[in-house]
Amino acid sequence: MRRLVVSQFVTADGVMEGPGGEPTAPRGGWAFQFERGEEGDDFKREELWASDALLLGRVTYEGFAAAWPGRSDEAGFADKFNSMRKYVVSSTLSEPLEWNNSHLLKGDVAEAVRELKQGDGGDIIVLGSSELAQTLIEHGLIDVYDLWIEPIVLGKGKRLFREGLSKAGLKLVKSEISTTGVAMLTYEPGPIPEGPTV
Amino acid sequence: MGKLIYTAICSLDGYVADREGNFDWAEPDEEVHRFVNELDRSVGTYLFGRRMYQVLAVWDTLDLSDQPAFIRDYAESWRGTDKVVCSRSLDTVSTARTRLERDLDPEMVRRMKASSDLDISIGGPNLAASAFMAGLIDEVHLFLTPVIVGGGTQALPDDVRLGLELTDERRFGNGTVYLRYRVR
């Protein structure tokens, strides 16, 4: 079974919208003002190299497809992004997709993702893609949450965990704080805490 | 100069209480509680909104005879700290060392900060929202508990934008993560 990893920049008040300055986000561009330091680089490298597929919604996909091709960096992130398999969830885009190794995920999203997870392979990472992330969370399909809590409160914008989700417990499996004040927290589904019986 | 500190124990999706008004899932265990007790040493005054006050007032009269040390410590500390309750709907307050104010007056808060070496702790989120809007809050302390509750009372208000600096953090055995921020 492959793991489905949701990897997000979130503000201290849980907003995920517009970290990279997306034009539709009301207060976009906030995540990249924070340098991530060596711990951050290591975290991202480990996360990306454990995966062999990206799963994206249309808006995030289009942003990435415009930004990554033709880019190159020492650490090899660009090459990895450009070469790895991309699955896109969209009812408006049609194949062939412009970015290398991109495929439309057809049919019911939850079903399609369940099938993807059945196969052999590395992790499937969801970046951005707020609507898609919401659907995956609602269907209980997420195996790992990699959350970068940035030192900022935005008070406005789409939240990663929206209202209406069923109560769910999590287990903190890894945590690191970057020298730049970003809390990099990794959670997996776990039991609902009941509170101590003092 | 005292600092005005907003502390919240909240779910990972940012709620201090769920839609049913429960927060048993946020209740600190001994390890977290001891840490909170330590932090409270530097607090000279509590500033409460009505609901928070009504939740915490029990600490004034709780029978401590069967309670473990970390609960007794918290109770003693709570009882020994001055409290100011900001509420228009309450007529009186029932706990000792407690005074009632109609509103959160920024001038009052500034005077409190200036006249104290110890910090002022404000809660809950409703009263804190007013303080955020007035630019009065100096630090935000978040205890993120490993649970999603899907709705309820938000820890942080909408429409408030803050630059923060992480100044301390702690990770606890029960998966709670403490993040201490200075407001820029």
Helices and strands in order, then pairings?
The complex is a heterodimer of chains A (198) and B (184).
Chain A: E1 4-11, H1 37-49, E2 51-57, H2 58-67, H3 77-83, E3 85-89, E4 102-104, H4 109-118, E5 123-127, H5 130-138, E6 144-150, E7 152-153, E8 168-177, E9 183-190
Parallel strand pairs in A: 1-5, 1-6, 2-3, 2-5, 3-4
Antiparallel strand pairs in A: 6-9, 8-9
Chain B: E1 4-11, E2 15-18, H1 30-40, E3 43-49, H2 50-56, H3 69-79, E4 82-86, E5 98-101, H4 106-114, E6 119-123, H5 125-133, E7 139-145, E8 147-148, E9 152-154, E10 162-171, E11 177-183
Parallel strand pairs in B: 1-6, 1-7, 3-4, 3-6, 4-5
Antiparallel strand pairs in B: 2-9, 7-11, 10-11
Helix pairs in contact in B: 1-3
What do you see in this structure?
- The complex is a heterodimer of chains A (198) and B (184).
- Chain A has helices at 37-49, 58-67, 77-83, 109-118, 130-138; strands at 4-11, 51-57, 85-89, 102-104, 123-127, 144-150, 152-153, 168-177, 183-190.
- In chain A, strands 4-3-2-5-1-6-9-8 form an eight-stranded mixed beta sheet.
- The termini of chain A are far apart.
- The mean pLDDT of chain A is 88.
- The longest helix of chain A has 13 residues, at 37-49.
- The relative contact order of chain A is 0.25.
- By secondary structure, chain A is an alpha/beta fold.
- Chain B is α/β, with parallel strands linked by helices.
- Chain B has helices at residues 30-40, 50-56, 69-79, 106-114, 125-133, and strands spanning 4-11, 15-18, 43-49, 82-86, 98-101, 119-123, 139-145, 147-148, 152-154, 162-171, 177-183.
- Chain B has an eight-stranded mixed beta sheet with strand order 5-4-3-6-1-7-11-10.
- In chain B, strand 10 (162-171) and strand 11 (177-183) form a beta hairpin.
- In chain B, helix 1 runs parallel beside helix 3.
- The longest helix of chain B is centred in the N-terminal third of the chain and has 11 residues, at 30-40.
- The model of chain B has no long low-confidence stretch (mean pLDDT 96).
- The interface between A and B is large, with 39 and 44 residues.
